[in-house]
Structures are given as C-alpha cells and as structure tokens.
Amino acid sequence: MSEINDEKWKDICDRANGWFDSHPEWKKEHADLSSVQTMMSAGDNKPVKRPAYYKAMRSMFDGIEDAPFASGGAKSNMPLASQNYRDNALELCKKALVEAAENCPEILLFAVKNRRTVDKKTAVKGGLFDDAEAFAQYWVDAAYLRINKAWNAHNTGKISADYAWSGEEGESLVSQIPLCKKTLKTLEDA
Question: Fewer CB atoms near the end CB (10 Å): N or C, the chain?
C-alpha cells in the first residue's frame, strides 16, 4: 500500500471514530478493538507506518458486519456524513425496536425471519426470534443493506433498483418499484 497522507489518514480515523461513537457498547462486545485507537494515535505520530496500521485496523474489524471499512481494503464511496447519519439512525431504530418488543412481547410471537435466513448454528431456515435484541438486530441488518443499495442506486443513477437514497440527513428512501400493471389497469377501468 502506498503512503497515506494526512487527509486520507483523517478520513480513516473519522470512519473508525464514527463507528466507535455509534456503538457505545463496543468495549463489551469487541474489547480487542481498543488497540485500533492506539494505532490511530500511533499513525498520527508516525506517518510512514500508516499503511501498516491501516492494514492491521482493517483486520481487527474483520467479521464485524458494519465495520467502518472492508477488511479487503475496499471502502464505501458513501460520504462519511451519510454513513454516520445512517449508523446513528439505525442505532436509534434498534433501541426503539428492542423497547417495543420488550413492552409488547406479542411482537415476538408473530415476527419471523425471512425463509432465506439460515441460523449458522442450527441450519434452521427462517423461524422466530429468541429475544427482542435478536429481532431488532435482524431489522437493523436488513435496513443497513437496503440503505446501502439505495445509496448506490442513487449515486449511479440505477433506476431499476427498488429504492434510492440521496444520503441526506432526514431524507427517506424513495421507492422506484414500478406500479403493478394489473392493479393499475383495474383502477383505470373503474
């Protein structure tokens, strides 16, 4: 990897710090990531070592689904402000969904996973959620992927995608799903 200038290093550190800020419980779940903060500080002091630190930081986040940068080195083209907004919004949604499922346990009686979802430990497809946390995380994971696809569709002008998202704070996804021709015909005939 070539040298990492100050601007690029700041972007890397901002991405990592944004992830830490949007995951306040990270020390409980990923205590080993504390070394990432040490590497960021070391990279500030030793610019020639930044490529090695960045490579190590990416590997530290390997296996974490919403990592601030991919372990393979590819990074999202989504602006950092949009990523941080997405992550913060999803964190708020997760808290609200956990609270809703805890306040109304009946939600867990009828909320189900997509049949394509396979439990890696049991090989069971679909199914119910074990608890409010699992329910909320499932929704957040699906929304995260949908938001990223929607932003990519907006960014590339892909009108065949189901949704588009500008990445602007407070803006919702925009449906690009075509109207149902059969229903439209029925409405026109009425």
Answer: C
State the number of CA atoms in the 13 A half-sphere of 180 facing the CB.
Answer: 4
Number of domains in the chain: 2
Range of the domain at 96: 80-189
Both 45 and 84 in one domain: the answer is no
pLDDT in tens, 44-87: 999 899 989 988 888 888 877 778 876 554 556 788 888 889 98
**C-alpha gyration radius of the chain:** 20
Between 117 and 107, where is the model more confident?
107
- How far apart CA 116 and CA 125 sit, in angstroms, is 6
The reply to whether 29 and 118 lie within a common domain is no
Q: Model-level pTM?
A: 0.64
